[in-house]
Amino acid sequence: MKRILFLFLISGVVGCNSEIEIPLKVSKNFWYKYENATQTEWILESDIYTVTFTLNNFPKTSSYKKNGEWINTISPLPPRRSMICVRDFVDERYATLRIKEVVFVETATSEKYFVTLGGLAEDEDQGSESVVLEFNADCEFVRVGN
């Protein structure tokens, strides 16, 4: 039974949109990296295969080139799960803003956190400012982005 399931998984039949034919290398690399993924949904845009899925009850998006090469995985995180060092940094330097969104982006060469800050809850209706901060995987501040 395991062998049959494995064959379905690497063939791209399980968890894929029926309109998109996922190359074997793409499907195989995805399932190797995320063997416990659920709720998979694939899209194809400009020769890039992108899959949204759930892993351990968290949503993720992963992209692959048509030759199967993994490009990146993007994982939104609840603001309350942001690292203490990020929260301390925000409290020190952006006391009037709060963490609205945290996204973890993993590539073959780097791991980064992008933290979006916005106005305090009572100011949100007034079109408050928004700031994006970038941190590396060691929780070191890298730069302010757009």
Write the layout of secondary structure elements.
Layout: H1 2-11, H2 24-33, E1 38-45, E2 48-55, E3 58-65, E4 70-77, H3 84-93, E5 97-107, E6 111-119, E7 131-136, E8 141-145
Antiparallel strand pairs: 1-2, 2-3, 3-4, 4-5, 5-6, 6-7, 7-8
Describe this protein's structure.
It is built from three helices and eight strands. A hairpin with a 4-residue loop joins strand 3 and strand 4. The longest helix has 10 residues.
Provide a quick synopsis of the model.
The protein is an alpha+beta fold and 146 residues long. The chain has helices spanning 2-11, 24-33, 84-93, and strands spanning 38-45, 48-55, 58-65, 70-77, 97-107, 111-119, 131-136, 141-145.
Oligomer: single chain
Number of strands: 8
Report the order of strands and helices.
HHEEEEHEEEE
Helical proportion, percent range = 10-25%
Principal-axis shape: elongated
Distance between the termini: 50 Å
Mean pLDDT: 83
Strand content: 35-45%
Individual helix count: 3
Largest sheet: 8 strands, antiparallel
- With strands numbered from the N-terminus, the spatial order across the biggest sheet is 1-2-3-4-5-6-7-8
| Strand-pairing-aware structural class | alpha+beta
List the uncertain runs. Answer: 1-18
From the alpha-carbon coordinates, what is the Rg to the nearest angstrom? 18 Å
Question: Keywords, please?
Answer:
disordered N terminus, 146 residues, 21% helix, alpha+beta, 3 helices, eight-stranded antiparallel sheet
